[in-house]
Amino acid sequence: MGDWTTTRVEDRLESAADVFRTLPGVMPQGVLQWLARVFSQLRGQGRSGTTNAQAPAGPRQITEAEEALLWLRWLERDDARIVWLRAERTPWKPICWQMGLSRTAATKRWQFGLAVITWRLHGRVPPARRSQQFVIENANRLSRKIVL
């Protein structure tokens, strides 16, 4: 299980978003793929002649990213969307516009989503009869005894 905290969960989700960003898109086979690769390399070159592209993700990083993406199944759809948008480093204003929430409500749902993931990674289900604030406050204390 490990000692998961909300900060560690957030870091893993951000690294997953970075991994998915570096993966190549689906391209047709043949000459078009070769041309697209050449043009993308030319676009990535700066004035010094070096490429600015990131190194491709390794198999372990891809596996960890896929695992982190599966964590979003534990959340409600809107909460999962907010957590993933923040993992992609989307600013709060567009998130609030898309979700139709105030900044405070969006932040609270993001924190709650991270807390639920942390609870589930510790093998526990957040109590349904407790408040969101209780789940958020106790997410980092799961290795200790929590009085329900």
Distance between the termini: 21 Å
Radius of gyration: 19 Å
> Judging from the principal axes of the Cα atoms, what is the shape?
globular
Helix content class: 55-70%
Portion in beta strands? under 5%
The biggest sheet amounts to:
none
What's the number of helices?
7
Summarize the structure.
The chain has 148 residues and is mainly α. The protein is built from seven helices and no strands.
Structure, explained:
- The protein is an all-alpha fold and 148 residues long.
- It has a domain at 6-20 and 58-141.
- Helices cover 60% and strands 0% of the residues.
- The protein contains 7 helices and no strands.
How does the SSE layout of this entry go?
Blueprint: H1 6-22, H2 31-44, H3 59-71, H4 77-87, H5 92-99, H6 103-121, H7 132-138
